[in-house]
């Protein structure tokens, strides 16, 4: 009888709430402190953008929303129990070169990151966690369990997979509790062949540094495509924001800060330039943006939106070179002595709500021109066509959430 290893990831993205006026953070100075060793700013970001492109390719024209941090954390945990070529594929998919960088460094950086992100912050709820649900009848390697607890702060629970209905309820109840009821019924199907379910969750709720006035929200046109226009509630606010115009990528970027040192980047491609922006995003571009952001007075028009994403990653990750772990060739002998186990399913769910109170390679010759306030009138930036959204933790520059709003 084949034993299956089921890996489930979940995350909940932001619902925003209100806040006061304070744009005291200096992004340019913080960019100089970009942590090269911490989960690998570069590794995690390029993985994030590569995965984003794979998701867009699999579901063109649709809203996209996911957590690169949640998925990369889960893959890193899985690599602890993987061996031989299975491990190499996972590490290389995450952007790590096992021959040049010790695997231990990856896990230590995740450990530091989880500890950093778990610190209490004013005006921000950010909770991350990992859990293992294991069958008591199956012997799990002590070294794997110890590493999961020490490096990824993972809780471990016995689960009777011989009773699939009961096991499913146990796991789904845990997920619902940890995500404040926002993610329910994560696990849809379990059978008695399952031996483990691994869960990673993120709950994020933050307040804008300056809330939008709901009285200024009006119904406006949103151009889903050249042929389709829908009415959406459009928020507006005149304030100081971080902004820039990237002419190499043909887009405008506005940074709207939350309390608690996180920031939402809203990326508005020029008309007809969405594909150019999507193909050009990478770690170097993001690093460049952080360095040259400037604060400018402008009137921002941003639609209220609520989108959700649900993805079967076993169908998407092979595009990033991670495929053996989902096949009968998988080597997960670092988890258990059983030789016939594989990951049967990898589920990722995410959702985001944005409202008035809060909530988410350029060519070498390319130049970036920043927006500058006019003397008499302030620039207007109107997000009335498909755009990208990225929620970044300021101190580590890790991408918590990444998405595309095609239809608010």
From TrEMBL:
SMART domains: SERPIN
Keyword Oxidoreductase attached: no
Domain Serpin: residue ranges: 49-408
Protein keywords: Signal
Transmembrane segments: none
A biological-process GO annotation: seminal clot liquefaction
InterPro entries from the UniProt entry: Serpin_CS, Serpin_dom, Serpin_fam, Serpin_sf, Serpin_sf_1, Serpin_sf_2
PANTHER family the UniProt entry points to: PLASMA SERINE PROTEASE INHIBITOR, SERINE PROTEASE INHIBITOR, SERPIN
Name of the protein described by the UniProt record: Serpin family A member 5
Taxonomic placement: Eukaryota, Metazoa, Chordata, Craniata, Vertebrata
């Amino acid at each position: 009888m084949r034993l299956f290893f089921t890996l489930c990831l979940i995350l909940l993205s932001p619902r925003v709430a209100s806040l006061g006026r304070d744009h005291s953070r200096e992004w340019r100075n913080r960019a100089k402190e970009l942590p090269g060793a911490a989960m690998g700013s570069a590794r995690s970001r390029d993985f994030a953008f590569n995965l984003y492109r794979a998701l867009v390719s699999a579901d063109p024209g649709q809203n996209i929303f996911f957590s690169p941090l949640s998925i990369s954390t889960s893959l890193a945990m899985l690599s602890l129990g993987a061996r031989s070529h299975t491990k190499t594929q996972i590490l290389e998919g995450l952007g790590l070169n096992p021959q040049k960088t010790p695997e231990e460094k990856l896990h230590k950086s995740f450990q530091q990151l989880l500890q950093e992100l778990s610190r209490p912050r004013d005006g921000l709820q950010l909770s991350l966690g990992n859990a293992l649900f294991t069958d008591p009848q199956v012997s799990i390697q002590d070294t794997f369990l110890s590493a999961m607890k020490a490096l990824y702060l993972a809780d471990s629970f016995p689960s009777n997979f011989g009773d699939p209905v009961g096991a499913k309820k146990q796991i789904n109840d845990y997920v619902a509790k940890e995500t404040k009821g926002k993610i329910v019924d994560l696990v849809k199907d379990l059978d008695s062949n399952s031996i483990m379910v691994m869960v990673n969750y993120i709950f994020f709720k933050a307040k804008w540094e300056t809330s939008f006035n709901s009285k200024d929200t009006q119904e406006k046109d949103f151009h889903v495509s050249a042929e389709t226009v829908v009415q959406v509630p459009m928020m507006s606010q005149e304030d100081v924001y971080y902004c820039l115009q990237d002419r190499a990528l043909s887009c405008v970027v506005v940074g709207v800060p939350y309390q608690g040192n996180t920031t939402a980047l809203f990326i508005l491609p020029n008309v007809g330039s969405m594909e150019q922006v999507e193909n050009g995003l990478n770690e170097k571009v993001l690093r460049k943006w952080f360095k040259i952001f400037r604060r400018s007075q402008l009137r921002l028009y941003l639609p209220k939106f609520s989108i959700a994403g649900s993805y079967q990653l076993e169908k998407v990750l092979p595009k990033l070179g991670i495929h053996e772990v989902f096949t009968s060739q998988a080597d997960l002998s670092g988890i258990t002595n059983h030789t016939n186990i594989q990951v049967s399913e990898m589920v990722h769910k995410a959702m985001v709500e944005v409202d008035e109170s809060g909530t988410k390679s350029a060519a070498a010759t390319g130049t970036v021109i920043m927006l500058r306030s006019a003397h008499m009138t302030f620039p207007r930036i109107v997000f009335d066509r498909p755009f990208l959204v990225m929620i970044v933790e300021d101190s580590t520059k890790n991408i918590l959430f990444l998405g595309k709003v095609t239809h608010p």
